Amino acid sequence: MNWHSKDLMSIVSELKSDLTVGLNSTQIRDKTADYGENKLKSKPKKTTAQRFAEQFKDIMVIILIIAAIISFIVAIVDPENGDFLEPFIILAIVTLNATLGVIQESKAENALEALQNMSSPTTKVLRDGQLSVVSSEKLVPGDIIKLEAGDLIPADCRIFECASFKVDESTLTGESIPVEKSVNTTVLPGAALSERTNMIYSGCSVINGRCSALVVSTGMDTEIGKIAKLLDTEESSLTPLQIKLSKLGKQLGILAFIICFIIFIIGIINGMNIMNIFITSVSLAVAAIPEGLPAIVTIVLALGVQKMVKKNAIVRKLPAVETLGSANVICSDKTGTLTQNKMTVTHIWSENEPEQIENELSNKSKKLLELAILCCDGSVERVDGKIVHIGDPTETSIVYAGINHGIKQSELKANIPRCNEIPFDSDRKLMTTIHKADDKYMVVVKGAFDVLAKKCIAGDIKKATAVNEEMSEMALRVIAVACKEIDEIPPLVVPSLIEDELTLCGLIGMIDPPRTNAKKSVALCKKAGIRPVMITGDHIITASAIAKQLGILNEGEKAITGLDLAKLSDVELVNTIKDYSVYARVTPQDKIRIVKAWQVNGNVVAMSGDGVNDAPALKAADIGCAMGITGTDVAKSAADIILTDDNFSTIVQAVKEGRGIYDNIKKAVKFLLSCNMGEILTVLLAMFFQHETPLLAIQILWINLVTDGMPALALGMEPAEKDIMKRSPQAKYENIFSGSMIPDILINGVVFSIITLLGFYLGKTIIGTVAAGRTMAFIVLSFSQLFHAFNVRSSHSLFEIGLKSNKYMIWAFGASSLLILILLFTPPLSRAFGLVNLNLTLYLYAIGFSLTPVLTSEIQKLCVKLYQKRKKPYNLYDKF
Prior knowledge:
With 880 residues, the chain is of the alpha/beta class. The protein has 36 helices and 25 strands. The strands form 4 sheets. It has an 8-stranded mixed beta sheet, with helices on both faces. Strands 10, 11, 14, 15, 16, 17, 18 and 19 form an 8-stranded mixed beta sheet that branches. Strands 1, 2, 3, 4, 5, 6 and 7 form a 7-stranded antiparallel beta sheet that branches.
């Protein structure tokens, strides 16, 4: 409904209200029945049981559960060949993984409740001709409400009376400058939210002045309610890691089925016992799937969460940690994210050339500041050791600039007291104060230069005009200051008598400045192959100036407004999305379109923001980052990660941590699958050539869960490699086995298989029993995998990174080795696992064989290093 463009009295008539007495009790009862309470609806929250059940949807977990059920059935049907230990351990691992997931995700998104809490609890309302205070939830369309500075706006309203009324709409529009509201203004039907100066909106706050307004929309019909609907309908997408692990699970499931089928056929052809063949097949299927991987990935992500907290980032969902590492587009809000969200004076002109505020000012410029401060109602105070700006941000920025140059507002007010004033209004675009100065009175006027210049009879207007244009091109907000002396205050203080025959004193330029380290962070993003994009509700000129200053808007790249964006179809936007680096004057719906257009192009999109207007896009993005200090509860609840220091550079650090964590997960996958490949090839080749298995099912399970588990976790604690931010991000749908992953797994699997079969042959030949051969195979495979964990730590040589750079790996190696030795030399345990004692010679052979993967890996790394020296470095950002 275009309430902003309709005639006021037609709205009053349509809502059956009265501007002088408000609604009566009968109307209120009927309207409450029609419209409901003034609050936002929310969908039911998921129970803990539902969240726990969702953890079991992963295909790899499902395969493990099926394997556990089959193993359990075998143990019941054939107790001699089967046992209950195997299915019990598998189910325990799966349950642990689900529990960890539920614990972390119990802090689920709660955006709608946060939106509800934003409304002011009570409101002054005119009903039956009486002004009373009622709960904001009881408001209905047609109510007449009264608002003043400091109030939160409880509903969408049309203003019909106001004085010096300013509203902070930054949470809805992204604009940091308060909006001056007016009654007598014409607004077009298609006007943007920020241009509807005769309307006020639920969830925003009153900065200055007072108003009377007619409630036109409540609850879900308000602008904030529309955002709530977007949050309610916008589903969170799968993260890249979830996609890749799901694909991995399906691939491993197919592999497990193929292996079972091959082993079963081989066994039948060779006349083996059906039950033994079945048990061996299931064991190999279990060996094909790294049982510990889901738990290890969850734990590695949880450890990453702890590291991120130290980097000023709170992670609300585990997979979000690695998603940032895959991000190649960051869509950032301007206000409060790239900028400081506070107006700051940067330039002052009083004579000659403009002076920068950080430099020592001329006496004339200091005098200009004093005059401007006299004409300000805002103040800056120190509360509990912190600087607090009270009032209009434009005025407080002037006061704060004065403080930095030794000008105290309190002393000025005492020495040159204010006697009278003409408040600012949007029609005049001026504010005037009158002060007692010795035996005369001084008039100070500040406001828009184009208006004030016409009222000046002295001062360098020509030079001021040129400076004003120069400052405007820098996207500065320009405040002009003029003054004059009068002998006495006239009986009637009106603009026509006071605001004329002035002397122009100078200009003050201000802006919401970029954060101090934002430019460096943007440069780091580009170096890391990440495209930074600005999305804001601010004016396109201001947004473009900040974007150029930060290095976001470069030559050949464009800026576009929400109105122009609306003219593009979804297909056109997808095809041209890479042309634009700045999107200005956009709505919440526009932000979602932008995010999705980048996603359709195959990009992993991170969206940062702090306002209510950012929340739907934060949820739609692959990874949403909300500001923790200035961010609204809505934005925080819709986001995946909360930046506790509100610093854009924290996103860059989070990207580095995310890349490191994703690297570590790939290392864990590579390590576990290399080990599993060794087990599969060992059993498969032995069955094919010797018709007997060199490893029992319980031995394979021990190696998978106990021997491999701790080193895999230690890999998750590996520090990020030094060159990690010089690499291009992983493509969104890039297979987790990309690059040299598969060749590495196959090569290492073959090495494990050869040395394990060699150990099995030596043990069986020298001692003369199959049990001795299996013991030898068990020792070789277990220790060779432990040594191999050091190989997987880095693509660089082990001698380059050193052993001490990851102390957790040393502890994991020691603990796993100790467990293996306990299993080998504790008779009850060794008997349960089918192990026997060997002679010293065989133990020495086993250790020698186990060191083989270290030698082969170092040779492989050396060959890769020599090859890469010939390759030209590649940066994904070149593609944008």
